[in-house]
Amino acid sequence: MVTQRDVARRAGVSVRTVSNVVNNFAYVSEETRAQVQRALDELDYRPNLAARSLNRGRSNLLALVLPLDVPYFTELAAHVVDQAEERGYTVLLDRTEGSAERERQILMRRDRSALFDGFIFSPLGLTEDELRSWAGDCPAVMLGEVQVEGVDHVAIDDTAAAKAATEHLISLGRTRIAAIGVPHRPKASAGRPARATAAHRSAGYEQALTEAGLPIRPELTVRVRRYQRQDGRDAMERLLDLAEPPDAVFCYNDLLALGAMRAVLARGLRVPQDVAVAGFDGIDEGRFATPPLTTVVPDKARIAELAVTRLLERVEGDKSPAVQLEAPWRLMIDESTAGVPEAGE
Amino acid sequence: MVTQRDVARRAGVSVRTVSNVVNNFAYVSEETRAQVQRALDELDYRPNLAARSLNRGRSNLLALVLPLDVPYFTELAAHVVDQAEERGYTVLLDRTEGSAERERQILMRRDRSALFDGFIFSPLGLTEDELRSWAGDCPAVMLGEVQVEGVDHVAIDDTAAAKAATEHLISLGRTRIAAIGVPHRPKASAGRPARATAAHRSAGYEQALTEAGLPIRPELTVRVRRYQRQDGRDAMERLLDLAEPPDAVFCYNDLLALGAMRAVLARGLRVPQDVAVAGFDGIDEGRFATPPLTTVVPDKARIAELAVTRLLERVEGDKSPAVQLEAPWRLMIDESTAGVPEAGE
């Protein structure tokens, strides 16, 4: 079957432009419209009429509800926007900062179905009851942190990834390996859903230590309130003040790791010689840090593709049971752990 | 007059919650509703009935259309969301990456007025004609880069700020001061509005050099395609390959500066001893870089406040002539230019 993508390639325009012509939107120039029409004719493109009929009354807007103060989500959002755009949808973002009130403000609007065809979000504030009742009557896919029964969910294997990062630090001969990012409230409480991601990362960290015969030292495990650079810096300061400070640290996201690295370097200590630092997220910022950051890189493009594909199946009426979809990840080893020797060493 | 803010303080809840109660939204718990109602009664709060009547038929949604791949805008967006929330509005973000098609997709929708009460945006792709005709029938405020006649605009004095940053580098005794970030297309062309910001920063850079009696050397002025870390790194590599490389560099945003700094450090050169590096934007990332980045810090909270205030005046029917609003900035001097001496030096 000829797709809009084929037509776009032939006409030398974007899929979005083809979609605009097919849907007879106003803002395509006459010249471009003619060019696309030629390609449509040449390829004998036939729109999926069932889909277009279903499509009536829709806004073609998807809502992406995320804490955008973390670059991981900003980068993930770019992929979601791309994936949705290829399918003719516009994505609007709502930044929540994990605030329950902000999540309610957008998710609980009475006109939400008129505004949005579907939702992709990473809820941090709503209660499990709210999420379940909400998700019951709205196409939705959840990402990351929180899982709720009966709602499609996309994530990576956080335990395996955290274990691999910790094993890498062990393989360098480090024995006092700290962890920064244990949540203050790791388990479900007060009607809130479990924040699964951090708990999974802790599990992977502990498994790696145990399998290597290393003790799990509570003083090397630091809780944080948020996942920002300053939290990582504060946590590392406390670790460096210990009588026996760590020789390596695994941070549950890259911002924590960049803050931790700053704390080490600001004391005149060296990364990785004195303290090896590993992060999680694979954000662009880590590649440009000095030294560049070793990190777990989730396949963000694949996460976005799985989430958008699943969501649009729901938008089109799929009522099958909820699924857990898993995307791949890789460990990117760089100078913050396995540094190239400095001149003179 | 008693405001919702007063009521919120008395009731010990957020302004948003008060607004939800006043507007009789569904998702406030009975307990909280009673608490707010007590405070409303005690303070004898009277809603602004004219405003509430005008408010009928509105979505209470604002659109913020920005290139979110630059942390400056992500941080600015947080302030806009806060400011709008205090006034009972929800902000949805559309990330454009400066693509004209994406801007059109959201700005040119036929149902835009049903979706959004107003727009705040930083357009990079639309033509001046499109912007003028669009802004004519939609409440809108523009930020940063582009100015269009007849549309309210909020910015800082880019020329003065760039001049101050360059003068700071001159005050350190540097004489070969490079600039990274000159746009490929500095002037209006092909119907596109002038990208004013970069041109203003170039003007400030050149004024500072000229007033100090230093030559403007074309080989030290590097054009970039985008304002990302990799562009800064590539530009700096070229500068370091010159027969006479620069001893300082002023970058038109922090991402360029962080990429430039990485290029210097990766060659085993020192910042600031061999090359002093200054940026522009005051993003959080720069404070955690090693060394921390000297940068121009626009007052983002004030920019957001001016933009939201002006936009809501337009939403409420203000038809007065368009204004240029200016927010303050400051130069934050840190170790990337005025480094503390290293131990042993």
Q: How many strands, which pairing sense, and closed or not: the largest β-sheet of chain A?
A: 6 strands, parallel
- What is the average of the pLDDT values of chain A? 85
Order of helices and strands of chain A: HHHHEHEHHEHEEHEHEHEHEHEHEEH
State the oligomer. Answer: homodimer
Strand content of chain A: 15-25%
CATH superfamily of the largest domain in chain A: Response regulator
Greatest interface (CB-CB under 8 A), with counts per chain:
A-B, 49 and 49 residues
Structural class of chain A: alpha/beta
Q: What's the architecture of the largest domain in chain A, going by CATH?
A: 3-Layer(aba) Sandwich
Q: Give the overall silhouette of chain A.
A: elongated
Strand order of the largest sheet of chain A: 2-1-3-4-5-11
The CATH class label of the largest domain in chain A is Alpha Beta
How many E strands of chain A? 12
CATH topology label of the largest domain in chain A = Rossmann fold
Question: How many structural domains does the protein architecture of chain A include?
Answer: 3
Count up the helices of chain A. 15
Q: Uncertain segments of chain A of ≥5 residues (pLDDT<50)? A: 48-55, 341-345
